[in-house]
Design brief:
seven-stranded parallel beta sheet; binds zinc ion; alpha/beta
């Protein structure tokens, strides 16, 4: 099994190491049919993409796409969960400039209100040492579900990374909103159990590299091995065949 497109890669526009062209060249060398440039959105400390930069990145993505005709180069952003009420740091107006919108929980992202830090990130810190309490897992899960319901989201990135969640509940929300749940090779989430729970709730999956260096673009060994072990196929994972993919926000590829 191999992925045919990588919808989650970073560049120097946030804190990746390479350029848009570097990511495209590496994706092309693996025979991928598409690669998305999905840098961190504005509330990622120090490196987040400011809204006025989106047009600059779009120009770059378009130019690289013209240069390398055998691969589709797409523009996206990886938005942050910035409140327990489902707010993200990409406005709908800005999201409309993108091909794909990813959303993920990041421990260090600036929250919308001071009190919001006590609901998710501070508990994320405790996650480093122990599993979140049952009450906190409900809070985490509700925040992510609120995000999916409040915003049209194409991909939920690395669910369960630095935050414990109820995969069945999140899987159900993904199924209802048409959001693909990422199996993250970089962060190694969700594991087997989480995938099973989300799968039973009707979720569809996407396997991405979350590469922060060009050489890692398209490299998803951990996720692909797990998927194979579990007997998953193109029926459950949208980007392991050449079948067209229809994203929640409308991209068809
Ligand atoms: Zn991320
Ligand atoms: Zn990422």
């Amino acid at each position: 099994m191999k992925i045919t497109a990588d919808f989650h890669t970073h560049t120097r526009y946030s804190h990746g190491k390479g350029t848009v062209e570097d990511n495209a060249v590496n994706a092309l060398s693996l025979g991928l049919r598409a690669v998305a440039i999905t840098d961190h959105a504005r509330n990622h400390p120090l490196v987040g993409v400011k809204p006025d930069k989106i047009d600059v990145i779009r120009k770059d993505v378009t130019a690289v796409g013209k240069e390398y005709k055998n691969i589709r180069v797409l523009l996206g952003l990886e938005a942050n969960v910035i409140s327990p009420r489902g707010d993200i740091d990409v406005s709908e107006e800005d999201a409309q400039k993108l091909d794909v919108l990813l959303v993920g929980f990041h421990l260090t992202a600036y929250q919308k209100k001071l009190t919001d830090y006590f609901r998710l990130p501070f508990n994320g810190l405790t996650h480093i040492f122990c599993k979140n309490s049952a009450k906190q897992i409900v809070r985490n899960t509700d925040a992510i579900i609120a995000c999916l319901e409040k915003n049209k989201v194409d991909v939920l990135t690395h669910p369960g990374f630095r935050i414990d969640v109820d995969y069945a509940e999140i899987g159900r929300a993904c199924a209802e909103t048409g959001t693909f749940m990422e199996i993250s090779s970089r962060h190694r989430v969700p594991g087997r159990e989480g995938i099973e729970q989300a799968l039973n709730a009707g979720a569809k999956f996407i396997i991405n590299s979350d590469a922060h260096k060009p050489v890692y673009v398209g490299k998803c060994g951990w996720a692909l091995s797990l998927a194979e072990e579990m007997g998953l196929t193109e029926n459950e994972i949208v980007n392991v065949s050449d079948k067209p993919i229809r994203f929640a926000r409308g991209l068809e590829i």
